Amino acid sequence: xxxxxxxxxxxxxxxxxxxxxxxxxxxxxxxxxxxxxxxxxxxxxxxxxxxxxxxxxxxxxxxxxxxxxxxxxxxxxxxxxxxxxxxxxxxxxxxxxxxxxxxxxxxxxxxxxxxxxxxxxxxxxxxxxxxxxxxxxxxxxxxxxxxxxxxxxxxxxxxxxxxxxxxxxxxxxxxxxxxxxxxxxxxxxxxxxxxxxxxxxxxxxxxxxxxxxxxxxxxxxxxxxxxxxxxxxxxxxxxxxxxxxxxxxxxxxxxxxxxxxxxxxxxxxxxxxxxxxxxxxxxxxxxxxxxxxxxxxxxxxxxxxxxxxxxxxxxxxxxxxxxxxxxxxxxxxxxxxxxxxxxxxxxxxxxxxxxxxxxxxxxxxxxxxxxxxxxxxxxxxxxxxxxxxxxxxxxxxxxxxxxxxxxxxxxxxxxxxxxxxxxxxxxxxxxxxxxxxxxx
Length: 440
Description:
- It is built from 14 helices and twelve strands.
- By secondary structure, it is α/β, with parallel strands linked by helices.
- It folds into two domains: 8-224 and 417-433, Rossmann fold, CATH 3.40.50; 247-414, 3-Layer(aba) Sandwich (Rossmann fold).
- A six-stranded parallel β-sheet has the order 2-1-3-4-5-6. Strands 9-8-7-10-11-12 form a six-stranded parallel β-sheet, with helices on both faces.
- The longest helix is centred in the first third of the chain and has 25 residues, at 51-75.
- It starts with 7 loop residues before the first strand and ends in a 7-residue tail after the last helix.
């Protein structure tokens, strides 16, 4: 990187600790700081005062966030959907007068849902007259409210009649939010850059009716990963286990989320059990009655299942390291942290060639890709997807050079080294700052 003056950057996130977006945000902050820049991460906690008042404000925010989420589940979304619109937005534009924001060279948005930033806040950000980089963790920045659109492509036009809303119509909530976001992006123009960690998400953003014609830049910069810090200091295991029963690892906070593909994994394992290939299966996540019943059925077929519950960072890395491969059967993902974490200990990954997963897995080099089939189409399509996943799992287990596969998994982290990602980010900010002030 050329010698330049350190930049002052503010990263805005609704949480600094909870969820994959928060983890990616904090990793990005560390990478930029290591590159010599001044980074301030601002979240709801940033505006709370010290002492008893701040403590009660924190509790109220947390309660409100969970209450809104539950209300939306039962009153707004269709089952299995996730749709956000900040129904109780903070919308306090005075917060944008914070000294860190006033002094910043550029502002980076991460996950801003759960009432953290409302429309008035976003409008106030524009009035700071600084470059705004929106680091996207899903599709929400360029849709009418859904985080993943599934088979719907209405966001390419103007949303409306949203299949993820219980009460839908041509001028429903998705259309209104789409129109508001479209006006905001048009006002932002070339002050706005939509940064996607995956080529898939960048391609989806470029198609959006919110983005087209507004003048914003769409680009791809992956999330950074530090193999030492983020890999919890574990050395990669670059040789195969050699166990009679291959060991696979699956992790999801909520396996019952349809997008995570738990049902497809269960179908794939059931099929492989009938074929005589049984596994040691370790699962991290919440236990529900439905998932417990599915696991019991698999055990009857010869697989051995260990339910690990919710794990901390070190325990997760140890689980990746024990496995012969990690499986991520999601049908829409952006740039999963779990794949990077698996690579950090040399564990190959099996997943569908869908979303950002296809950017990360290279067939036969660091794992295997299953041909994606739209599981929402029909039961037969769902069965075909599971068979494709089973085939990919077999290709990893029976790979003729398993040690090289593990080495390739670990070497895949070269593309997301912190210094590489920081350099790309700073060059983007500097390019935006070079534009004449009248364009900014």
